[in-house]
Amino acid sequence: MAGFEDALGWVKEQVAARVPKADLDQRDADYIREQLPGLWLLASLYFRADVRGLDRIPSEGPVLMVGNHSGGNVPPDTFVFTLAFCSYFGVERPFYQLAHNLVVSAPPLASLRKFGTVAANPDNARLALESGAALLVYPGGDYEVFRPFWERNKVDFGGRMGYVRLAREAGVPIVPIAAVGGQESVFFLSRGQWLARLLGVDRLFRLKSVPIALAPPWGLVVSDLYGHIPLPSKIVVEAQDPIAADEIEAADDEVVHEKVEGVLQAAVDRLSAERRFPVLG
């Protein structure tokens, strides 16, 4: 047993060593400027991107944007919102997104770091906010992003409230970011949390889910490790009214957390009610 634990510890160290350190300078405004027109055209045609309420986001200074998350390891909501944010506020405004270690360390996804994607951990989040940047986080992580298709319009962070403490310590407002459509771009049948425990990836890679899904081009697939081709689902993202830093400071974590989830759920319910058919929108 001790040998197994030693081997497990060695593998975890090797994985951690391959995760790029948070270097905010890896964000490349010139690169974003060059890529933005073509990528926005793709988002507009393929996902019929509809992004609303950007005027509700403070126009300058650090802000924590907290969203519900969908689409597995190829999340179209993040793709669409990042392009819209950079178009609206300009590529010079520092903007970062937190992502799982496996995303930021995958060689084919290295270009994401040029858009401001950094590994999801508290140190990186604090570093981004202390630099005066806007930061997008998804507290639900792999628990929410792999939820079954029939729960596609359910907001559930799995009880994770660390983002509230982050906002309080940084003294920044929280802007809830609601999105619909992403969980219609791939059909997850199960989170596969039991499978994650069985395979040990919950301890190795901080993966709490090994999902089972129907996803092109693979068909029925176990795990979303190699990604998939997202269906052309219509993606709608809407920023909600900010929760002021003073309000966050004066309230308990659970009170703020319940407000954020409640605001997001109400917005998701309203936006999903506008959709007539899955995928088609």
UniProtKB/TrEMBL annotation:
Query: Which terms are listed as keywords in the entry?
Result: Acyltransferase, Transferase
Please, which domain of life does this record's source organism belong to? Answer: Bacteria
Extract one GO cellular component term from the record: membrane
**Keyword Acyltransferase attached:** yes
UniProt xrefs under Pfam families: Acyltransferase
Offer an example of a GO molecular function term for this protein: acyltransferase activity
Query: What is the protein named?
Result: Glycerol acyltransferase
Q: Which organism is it from?
A: Mycolicibacterium duvalii
